Amino acid sequence: MKELIQQLLEQTVTALKQQQVLPEGFEPRIQVDRTKDKAHGDLATNLALMAAKPAGKNPRELAQLIVDNLPESTLVEKTAIAGPGFINFYLNNDWLASQVEAMASSATANVKKVEKAQTIVVDYSAPNVAKEMHVGHLRSTIIGDAVVRTLEFLGHKVVRANHIGDWGTQFGMLIANLEEVEARGTDAGDIELADLEVFYRESKARYDSDEVFAERARNYVVKLQSGDEYCNTMWRKLVDITLSHNQAVYDRLNVSLTKNDVMGESMYNPMLNEVVADLKQQGLAVEDNGATVVFLDEYKNKDGDPMGVIIQKKDGGFLYTTTDIACAKYRYQNLNADRVLYFIDSRQHQHLMQAWNIVRKAGYVPEEVPLEHHAFGMMLGKDGRPFKTRSGGTVKLVDLLEEAEQRAQTIVAEKSRDLDAEQQVVAAKAIAMGAVKYADLSKNRTTDYIFDWENMLAFNGNTAPYLQYAYTRIQSIIRRSEIDVANLQQAINLEQDAEIALAQKLIQFSDAVHNVANKGMPHMMCNYLYELAGAFMTFYEACPILKDEVAADTKSSRLRLASLTAKVLDQGLSLLGIETLERM
User: Fold this and answer.
1) What element of type H or E holds 59?
2) What CA–CA distance (Å, rounded) separates 489 from 553?
3) Which of 143, 207, 288, 390 is most buried, most CB within 10 Å of its CB?
4) What is the DSSP string of 528-580?
């Protein structure tokens, strides 16, 4: 709705320029907001106040000229000028009903596909090989996945890029230790990832204390980077153990990543020598104390001199920056990306900006292809510190998910006694995973947030269980009506204030979807769904559906409104990767 009113106002500004009421070069940022008091209409703009000075007119006088020049539209029933020059818009209920009808008959709830689909690469999750996923991986994984689902829903071609940490000097010691483990008769395929964590620490301890072992480990690093078949086979075993564990976590969380989406650091290793040579040839990289460095005027060191970014060490080794330069280059030149989104911890911002600065200077990715860092804050405990175990260790993601399911099972056993044992297990899993994800997704990703079991599993407030219950409640109403809503021919009539308010909230779904896609902010969808559920609860209280005194036509209209609300809740939660339940 807001966008449609903005379009009408943009046309009006053009007309007023042609009439020389507004100066030709005047390009206002047209803002349309919802009114707080319905007595003052549905939407309002302060355009007249913004444009009064350039026009040399009194704001109320200009407001009247804007109203007089608004294009005809079935969207607007009437306008009114208020206060110093605000323009209030009252929407036409017939138009509103037609939009709701279109949503009801559309498989996508009338969310239009984009006119020009883009190839969008989304970098998210990115755990490390030989280490279990921990809570620090949760935000990137589920925020990125919600945005990916939304972009695909709009018709874009999305390339999921799980940039795992599968390369580096640590693999020398891991291969050396794995060699000894297999020599003692243990097959690598029998090693669980939890054991691999211990294995990693053992490898590091051996490396630090045993010089013979350390020398063998360093040799294996060189061999691995040179393509040695034996070392590559051992490295592959370590990677495969990790990927199997990760996939089990993704599947449990209902995250759409698969093994086919893995694009680890190792993928770009063959490009690194070429990148360094090219940067030297272009004069962007120079030798400095034996290392190869790119000096960036945009960043200064403590002495005020251009900051040097090392892309190759004295010993010939490469750095994360080198890999990220090659990675961006590959995504544009090989994957044909029109847009690249990185869901990476906010602490990596300067590192990414420096890498992309070099990428732009080298001409690897043109300016018109956005490289976007969608940073996020940290998950905190109730003490306001990074979320840890009671002993102060890092919380493993599998342990967090296991506790969530156990807590949900207790709640379901208490609240859903009419479900059989199998149904309770299904419900508990959906509630648990939904609660963990929604507690994160509902917060603005740029901020830290407090992880709180009681709040996230509550059936009231802005939580996944509340939204899942709202959906289930609507499905229960439809079942009790014993009417096939899909075959109802009765038009949707909007007569009561609560019906109108629900309809207005329903047609904002498209705006919510596009906001998530454009801004990479899933909390905008969460806020919308919470407001929609609240609008439905108000509607249900004010507008009876199943009572005997309700006329048949009114019952049909309200059932269709209820069914459409369930449809939008289901679709919106699906875009967040959260399951709904027919019964709970």
Assistant:
1) helix 59-69
2) 10
3) 143
4) HHHHHHHHHHHHHHHS-SSSTTS-HHHHHHHHHHHHHHHHHHHHHHHHTT---
